[in-house]
Amino acid sequence: MKTPLSLAAAFDRLLAAYGTQSWWPADSAFEVMVGAILTQNTAWVNVEKALVRLREAVAFEAHAIAALAPDVLAAAIRPAGYFNVKARRLQAFCAWLQAQGGIEGLAERPTAQLRADMLAVHGVGPETADDMLLYALERPVFVVDAYTRRIFARLGLLSGEESYEEIRALFEGDLPARADLFKEYHALIVTHGKGVCRPRPRCEACCLQSDCAHGVRG
DNA sequence: TACCAGGAGAAAA
DNA sequence: TTTTCTCATGGT
Questions:
Q1: Tens-digit pLDDT profile for chain A (218 aa)?
Q2: Between the CA of A6 and the C1' of B11, what is the distance in angstroms?
Q3: Is it true that A7-22+143-217 and A29-136 share their CATH fold?
Q4: Do the Cβ atoms of A157 and A118 come closer than 8 Å?
Q5: Strand C: positions under 7 A of a protein C-beta atom
Q6: Near strand B (CB < 7 A), which residues?
Q7: Residue nearest to nucleotide B9 (CA to C1')
Q8: Protein residues in reach of strand C (CB < 7 A)
Q9: Which of A24, A90, A129, A218 could be A135's S-S partner, Cβ–Cβ 3.0 to 4.6 Å?
């Protein structure tokens, strides 16, 4: 009988297979935050195109984006898809950030309170808030995404029916509360998910199984 | 052509 | 309260 893979052991296998990922791909905390909204249900390659166009259209600062005409902003971020929706969300977030005194104004806030405040902003759901908290603000919160559900459900560590918060609590309760660990773990999950753990997997043995044919072996 | 991508909010049941 | 629908471009 197989012993279930622990979350720590899964991390070790992913790290051994893919190496250090060093996420998030951004030059500043603010760019992480903007990217977190633009990447909602969207491939990162399209987000990069939108970020380039956004920088060409407006000063890359919260007050400037918040003040931009909505149709101009939507046109700029068009490659990221859902451009009308994301323009509205981006402006809501930028207005909120500006009201907080910018990123510096968030520094002293307790993580739980800050997370609750971020979730109250239009367009900021659990994953987006946690992306921002972890990768922009270095807070030790675990980011749960579709890849996390899929991969760990296939491993038998999740049923697939758990809520976002239940999965987050599972990882945060089972791993040391270290932002560097959580950043690397989530990045490795996405890398693995984009590689072999597709919705319809290329082989039934992928996803960290001991007989995996894709390099992530025990 | 169909599927999928680092979700979230609104509307309907 | 829970489930379903809508938003949309671009690569494979």
A1: 666 789 999 999 999 999 999 999 999 999 999 999 999 999 999 999 999 999 999 999 999 999 999 999 999 999 999 999 999 999 999 999 999 999 999 999 999 999 999 999 999 999 999 999 999 999 999 999 999 999 999 888 998 889 999 999 999 999 999 999 999 999 999 999 988 666 665 444 454 555 443 444 33
A2: 41
A3: no
A4: no
A5: 7-11
A6: A 23-25, 35-36, 39-44, 46, 81-82, 85, 89, 121-129, 131, 135, 145-147, 190, 193-194, 198-200
A7: A123
A8: A 41-43, 45-46, 49, 78-79, 81-86
A9: A24
Q: What residue ranges do the domains of chain A occupy?
A: 7-22+143-217, 29-136
Q: Using the CA of A78, which nucleotide's C1' is the nearest one? A: C9
CATH class of A7-22+143-217: mainly alpha
CA at A102, C1' at B10: how many angstroms apart?
29
